[in-house]
């Protein structure tokens, strides 16, 4: 696989830093050996030994002894009076008063000066070569940098490859390939980023698909009443019979009311779908909530029974939204049932479960898979003739998502459908 530009840029940056660091170390070393007399230990020892030897002889013989030592050891020994070091190029000659031996470095020349005891003379050695860094130390340092360079190469390469793959996936996704996913990351550092991208891509695709589905459904729902109203308006211009005119006006009024209901319900669903509201979780007695809902349907001619499989079930929930979900379920059972509704409350595995059953014609197996989608309606018993636009159950599904719960539809032993709400009893981690 071809290495990416970003990888080379980063890698060369690190190599440049290593080279710069090495250069700085060399400069520090040079500065150290230029000024540290301990770097010239061998030369210093010879100066000290020669000083001891000179002290055993008269000063008038020192010049000859130094000359013979220079010839014998092939080193540039010289004997100078202290007054000659007052020259400008030896501006630091006063340091000899603190240390008997000192290194002078000037114009790329190295001179060692040693003050002879009990005299005003200086024993010099030089010009001479600077000592070089030990080869062993240089080899070790170079080896360490080489190993570090390899380690960084093998560490950065998987990251660079994952970044290139992620960039390609993002480009494909941006160009409209919504099914694309970033390959699994080979680097543990890039794993969370790749997973986050894939989750984001799935959510965006889901939102776009939902938007398309919703747009198509709205267009379909608007088309029918608008077409009927348009036809009725055309007929009004040519019909003189008052009875027929009244019938067409009534049809137009009905269609306008249907459009108004559709818009209101659509706005409500949009408010539920776009943003998650701030939920106010409190411990509620579920049986009391159901009983309050049942009071709203006292005019219902059929029978509504409440069954508590578990006594005194209480759960954390947002009262307003759970009340809305119960209302939608019960209204749905009244619309599609016949004359009997049963509401069952139970607690299982720290889950609060509410079932609303009716004795209608039930829900087909195919429709169960989409009944909680927006604008979904059955073909037979559960159709628009009984009212609604298929948004009520979609709203219930969204409410359960906010409560970390679930919705489901089953067959009821009453003969109709059984709609289920279930959510965790304890919602402490969800409290805003």
The neighbouring-strand order within the major sheet is 6-8-9-11-10
Give the termini distance in whole angstroms: 48 Å
The dominant shape is rod-shaped
Number of separate helices = 10
Describe the main β-sheet briefly. Answer: 5 strands, mixed
Proportion of residues in helical segments: 40-55%
Average pLDDT number: 79
What is the total tally of β strands?
A: 11
Round the Cα radius of gyration to an integer and report it.
47 Å
Structural class: alpha+beta
Query: Strand share of the residues?
Result: 15-25%
Poorly predicted residue ranges: 379-387
The H-and-E topology, N to C, reads as: HHHEEEEHHHEHEEHEEHHEE
Structure, described:
This protein is α+β, with helices and mostly antiparallel strands and 432 residues long. The protein is built from 10 helices and 11 strands. Strand 10 and strand 11 form a beta hairpin. Helix 5 packs antiparallel against helix 6 and helix 6 packs parallel to helix 10. About 2% of the residues have low confidence.
